[in-house]
């Protein structure tokens, strides 16, 4: 229509029509995105952290850019507005979608990137090394993993409590070794050679709790058989206690007593 005027912001949008669907570029320095460039930007910072500056907000309401960091090493893209304020930090392999409301650039969607707008509505994670004690992992303000991580590379668990009578730990590749060590050191008992009296004898075991299994053996099989009928051994649950193994063995017969928690 003759004499009609096209609003400036409409004219600015028409400029964005171009043949390239996206721009794939390896950066040698900072980059400023021009209005004539593609709105899909695949950028490789190439060995250094690079600033990526967006167009001015004025007259560009509705303008958006999707920026992907295609780095093969751990360098980021720092997306800034034309006043050098950081909008988002895009790490290796991540992307951000930013949009302009005419007065400011805001993060519309992204992977795990920084920035005030994203941080207010997105997911924040605290990534930790499993081999170090740390505060855990927090997602949207909720602690999802506690700090029960041992410095030797494993997860703390009371897996040997029934063996040692106290909390144990399963650390790294030493899980079975830890349990075996606890069993050898504090969970079994072997007496010195005992001599039967024909009456109940108390044999202190030092386990700190009533043993779960008790058994015995003769010092000399021939001597045991020569003494007459096999000794009578009381091993009924409840006979033994947290201090002593209680056994009745034929008078004069030599034997050993054994117990396991």
Give the spatial strand order of the biggest sheet: 1-3-5-8-9
Total number of beta strands: 17
Percentage of residues in helical conformation:
10-25%
Quote the average pLDDT.
73
Structural class: alpha/beta
CATH class of the largest domain: Mainly Beta
Gyration radius, rounded: 38 Å
Question: How would the blueprint of this fold be written?
Answer:
Elements: H1 8-14, E1 22-26, E2 31-32, E3 40-44, E4 50-53, E5 64-69, E6 77-80, E7 86-90, E8 95-100, E9 105-110, H2 116-121, E10 138-139, E11 142-143, H3 161-164, H4 175-186, E12 188-190, E13 194-195, E14 200-204, E15 213-218, H5 221-226, E16 244-248, E17 254-260
Parallel strand pairs: 1-3, 2-4, 3-5, 4-6
Antiparallel strand pairs: 5-8, 6-7, 8-9, 10-11, 12-17, 13-17, 14-16, 15-17
Give a structural overview.
By secondary structure, this protein is of the alpha/beta class. The chain folds into three domains: 8-121, Jelly Rolls; 140-186, no CATH class; 188-260, no CATH class. It has five helices and 17 strands. It has helices at residues 8-14, 116-121, 161-164, 175-186, 221-226; strands spanning 22-26, 31-32, 40-44, 50-53, 64-69, 77-80, 86-90, 95-100, 105-110, 138-139, 142-143, 188-190, 194-195, 200-204, 213-218, 244-248, 254-260. Strands 1-3-5-8-9 form a five-stranded mixed beta sheet, with no helix packed on it. Strand 8 (95-100) and strand 9 (105-110) form a beta hairpin. Residues 6-19, 113-127 and 149-176 have low confidence and may be disordered.
């Amino acid at each position: 229509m003759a004499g009609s005027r096209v609003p400036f912001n409409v004219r600015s949008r028409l400029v964005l029509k171009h043949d390239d669907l996206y721009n794939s570029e390896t950066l040698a320095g900072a980059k400023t995105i021009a209005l004539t460039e593609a709105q899909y930007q695949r950028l490789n910072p190439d060995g250094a952290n690079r600033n990526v500056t967006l167009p001015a907000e004025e007259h560009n309401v509705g303008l958006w850019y999707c920026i992907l960091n295609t780095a093969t090493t751990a360098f980021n893209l720092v997306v800034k507005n034309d006043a050098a304020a950081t909008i988002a930090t895009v790490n290796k392999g991540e992307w951000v979608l930013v949009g302009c409301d005419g007065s400011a650039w805001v993060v519309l969607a992204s992977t795990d990137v920084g920035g005030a707008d994203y941080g207010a509505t997105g997911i924040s994670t605290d990534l930790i090394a499993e081999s170090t004690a740390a505060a855990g992992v927090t997602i949207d303000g909720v602690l999802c993993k506690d700090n029960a991580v041992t410095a030797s590379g494993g997860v703390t668990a009371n897996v040997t409590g029934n063996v040692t009578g106290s909390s144990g730990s399963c650390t790294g590749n030493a899980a079975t070794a830890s349990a075996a060590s606890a069993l050898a050191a504090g969970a079994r008992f072997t007496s010195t050679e005992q001599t039967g009296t024909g009456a109940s004898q108390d044999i202190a075991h030092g386990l700190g709790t009533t043993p779960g299994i008790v058994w015995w053996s003769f010092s000399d099989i021939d001597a045991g058989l020569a003494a007459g009928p096999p000794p009578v051994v009381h091993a009924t649950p409840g006979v033994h206690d947290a201090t002593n193994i209680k056994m009745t063995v034929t008078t004069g017969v030599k034997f050993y007593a054994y117990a396991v928690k």
